[in-house]
Amino acid sequence: MDYSIIVYIIFGVLPSLIWLGYYLRKDAHPEPKKMIVRIFLWGALITLPVFLVQIGLKFLLDKISIDLFIYDLIYWFLIIAFSEEFFKYLVIKIKVVNSPHLDEPLDIMLYMVVAALGFAAVENILYLFSPSGQMSFNQLVNRALVIDIVRFIGATFLHTLCSAVIGYSLAISFCEVKTKYISAVFGIFVAVLLHGLYDFSIIKLSGYAKFAIPVIIILTLAFLVFSGFNKLKKMKSICKLNN
Predict the structure, then answer these.
(1) Number of domains into which the chain is organized
(2) 238 lies in some domain
(3) Contact assessment for residue 163 and residue 85, using Cβ atoms and an 8 Å cutoff
(4) pTM confidence score
(5) How confident is the model at residue 178, as a pLDDT?
(6) Cβ–Cβ under 8 Å, residues 163 and 191
(7) How far is residue 90's CA from residue 107's CA, in Å, rounded to a whole number?
(8) Contact 15/145 with Cβ under 8 angstroms?
(9) Which domain holds residue 108?
(10) What Cα–Cα distance (Å) separates residue 36 from each residue in 21, 180, 243?
(11) Interior/surface letters 156-172, b for 16+ CB within 10 angstroms, e for the rest
């Protein structure tokens, strides 16, 4: 058996499991373990349709003759960021919103994070793949560990933060009927905007901005998310959902 596959799976899932343990400890009323596992797996499974959608949309985008800067904006903000955030949102909309386990505002934010971690786990595994025949076991593990550390504080954390922003906006939208749709749409918009800007900065920019902008985005999202967690903890029960 090719040991590299085992290394990819272990190190790919590890960052998500560490973050999962951290976020679950923030919930004073733990969710059922089966539900957590189910949403984590659904988050992992949606990587396939997201991947197919991204390939299809990029194929269509390549057919259009537009300025390179506009092309990059459409690709990173709409094709990549929007597709990923929207599909993670769909998991919660379909699998959690009508669930009896959704009994307090913090739950929906937490489940959004769980779905994001499932998605990030598969993304990490795919990112780790390389020609294993060119590396020894120690080299493979060392490379995987370095990538894990980078993605733990970068891409994996970003996925949890963006999804948490959407989860917070959904929780608020359920309790504030007058601004229900505005709150939900605004949360998705902020998540997509910052997710897209993060990816765009890392891939397309150079020099100081290549690192400064992603760091500022992570810190900004972390502040918003942890403030949101504290606010939702003070709400005693989830408002009735109007579907």
Answers:
(1) 1
(2) no
(3) yes
(4) 0.89
(5) 72
(6) yes
(7) 16
(8) no
(9) 3-233
(10) 11, 26, 23
(11) bbbbbbbbbbbbbbbbb
Q: Does some domain include residue 164?
A: yes
Between the alpha carbon of residue 42 and those of residues 47, 86, 100, 227, the distances in Å are 9, 14, 18, 27
- Looking at residue 233, its pLDDT comes to 80
Asked whether residue 239 is domain-assigned, the answer is no
Whether the CB-CB separation of 118 and 84 falls below 8 Å is answered with no
DSSP string, the chain: --HHHHHHHHHHHHHHHHHHHHHHTT-SSPPPHHHHHHHHHHHHHTHHHHHHHHHHHHHHHHTS---HHHHHHIIIIIIIIIHHHHHHHHHHHHHTTT-TT--SHHHHHHHHHHHHHHHHHHHHHHHH---GGGS-HHHHHHHHHHHHHHHHHTHHHHHHHHHHHHHHHHHHHHH-GGGHHHHHHHHHHHHHHHHHHHHHHHHH--THHHHHHHHHHHHHHHHHHHHHHHHHHT--SPPPP--
Of 153 and 135, the one with more pLDDT: 153
Q: What is the pLDDT of residues 128-149, one digit of tens each?
A: 876 555 667 777 788 778 888 8
Query: Is 31 domain-assigned?
Result: yes
